[in-house]
Specification:
Shape: globular
CATH class of the largest domain: Alpha Beta
Mean pLDDT: 87
Low-confidence stretches: 1-18, 43-70
Largest sheet: 9 strands, mixed
């Protein structure tokens, strides 16, 4: 029985080996047939006859091989339309090489609109950005058109146009884009029947940029719906006494410093005031929580302007933002202020903001003297307590350098302005004065608003000190009123911001 099993296993082993050899034989035969097929394409001068090989193949396999389809040849590429150069022969049979320039993409936009507002019965102001090189090296022009809604034959229903007067208020500080204010003043009152209409702006490059073209872009900048225009707005008394237009807020702002600033100035300007802040990325969640109580009380309006970051202008486009604020709210307040959130307006104890501004009412604009404060030098008396004190309470050393020109901030009667800058306006109707020393000033804590940690680096007990080559003198003007500011905040909004941190 065991012998038979061995014989059976031997038989199976032999069969498997012969089967493997059989497979190898068939594979080799198939390979030879394939080679024979390729010989069909070999020239007749070759030693082996292709017909003989085909005959051999037909005897081995009765099934002819399936012919393989020949792929189509690719079509030749179209001739290029781009020409870089060519030879030119002039009338003197002189040959020159003419070169060509082929533009791709696009340069800076011709005009980017932010807003358009009425400045009166017959005048409008359009605020936007435009290509800085276009204005530096060219002379772009603007035209305005009013298109009424009605179709009657009265004069008020006809389209009218006027030349736009442009102003560049950023003093050349623009980057890729510069700020442009276009004033559209028509020869007649617009929309007097209150039927509505729209204002169109035509912005022409006028040979600037690509001198081969004079491109004109047509854009709709303002729409007035029927029965919406209130013509009494332009001659009525302003509803507010004081208005604040803030520059672009950006970066990782210190919420505690913002808390102090808004409480201080709401107290200074009083209940008939309003503050507009512009968020260019700096009003993160903690800063918003600080502003929220004052927004709810109606003192603060927050505008999200983060989209302007797409366009490279000076300092987050603050010139454009301030001009938008001017024209948006120019009929709402008697006085409008322009300064930053690391600056504190101050009037002497025997004065009020009202008495000071009343004394300056003959001027359309006045500038404010700066008191530059150190954000690093503090009193040794505050050792161990600086983190609990408000910024203007612990920063009490003022820059004592004399005989230099310091930046000034300013306030205006906004109905007199056509455009404005950061430190003053050059486009206004009326007088300007810089003689305000002793009446009003501002304390500047440069950089403190963006510090999220303790700023005090040196604690001293002296009335005078020189630090980092700058002489300082002690000035406790704002420190002395810090307690009253804290009490005012507590009265207005309670304890909801007591846990605010830097």
């Amino acid at each position: 029985m065991a012998i038979k099993d061995k014989e059976k296993k031997l038989f199976l082993w032999s069969s498997r080996n012969y089967a493997a050899e059989h497979k190898l034989f068939l594979t080799t035969l198939l390979l030879l047939c394939t080679i024979a097929t390729l010989f069909c394409f070999i020239p007749s001068s070759f030693t082996i006859s292709a017909s003989d090989l085909r005959l051999c193949i037909s005897r081995i396999s009765q099934t002819p091989p399936t012919p393989t389809a020949t792929p189509p040849s690719p079509s030749p590429p179209p001739p290029s339309s781009i020409v870089h150069e060519k030879l030119i022969t002039n009338t003197n049979t002189t040959t020159i090489i003419k070169r060509f320039f082929n533009p791709y993409g696009s340069a800076a936009y011709n005009f980017i609109t932010m807003s358009a507002y009425r400045g009166g019965l017959n005048t409008f102001a359009i605020t936007g950005l435009s290509s800085k090189p276009l204005h530096v090296y060219g002379n772009p022009t603007y035209e305005c058109e009013w298109i009424p809604n009605t179709n009657t034959n009265t004069n008020s229903s006809k389209n009218i146009t006027t030349i736009g007067y442009k102003m560049l208020p950023d003093w050349g500080y623009g980057h890729v884009y510069t700020v442009v204010i276009v004033n559209c003043t028509f020869n007649e009152s617009i929309n007097v029947d209150n039927s509505g209409g729209k204002l169109m702006l035509y912005a022409s490059t006028s040979g600037g940029g690509d001198t081969k073209f004079n491109i004109t872009d047509r854009m709709e900048v303002l729409v007035e719906q029927p029965k919406v225009l209130d013509i009494t707005l332009f001659n009525s008394k302003p509803k507010l006494d004081y208005f604040y237009c803030g520059s672009s807020l950006f970066g990782n702002l210190n919420p505690q410093r913002v808390r102090e600033w808004i409480a201080y100035h709401v107290r200074l300007f009083g209940p008939n005031s309003h503050f507009v802040l512009h968020d260019a990325g700096g009003v993160h969640e903690e800063v918003f929580e600080v502003l929220k109580p004052w927004i709810e009380l109606g003192y603060v309006t927050l505008q999200d302007i983060r989209d302007q970051e797409r366009f490279d202008g000076y300092y987050h486009n603050q010139f454009m933002v301030l001009n938008d604020c001017l024209h948006r709210y120019k009929f709402m307040a008697k006085w409008m202020f322009f300064f930053d959130v690391d600056e504190y307006i101050y009037v002497p104890p025997k004065s009020t903001i009202k008495t000071v501004l009343d004394s300056l009412s003959e001027y359309s604009q006045f500038t404010i003297e700066q008191m530059a404060m150190s954000v690093k030098v503090c009193l040794s008396h505050d050792y161990g307590k600086t983190y609990r004190k408000w910024g203007f309470e612990k920063l009490v050393y003022r820059d004592a350098i004399t005989g230099i020109r310091r930046d000034r901030k300013y306030a205006v009667q906004p109905r007199s302005l056509f455009a404005n800058g950061i430190h003053m306006s050059e486009n206004l109707d009326g007088k300007t004065t810089h003689n305000t020393e002793g009446r009003i000033k501002y304390f500047h804590y440069h950089g403190a608003i963006s510090q999220r940690r303790e700023t005090c680096k040196l604690l001293v007990n002296s009335t005078k000190i020189t630090y980092e080559k700058t002489p300082y003198v002690m000035d406790t003007t704002l420190r002395d009123i810090a307690g009253s500011i804290k009490k005012f905040e507590l009265k207005m909004i309670g304890t909801r911001l007591q846990n605010t941190r830097q």
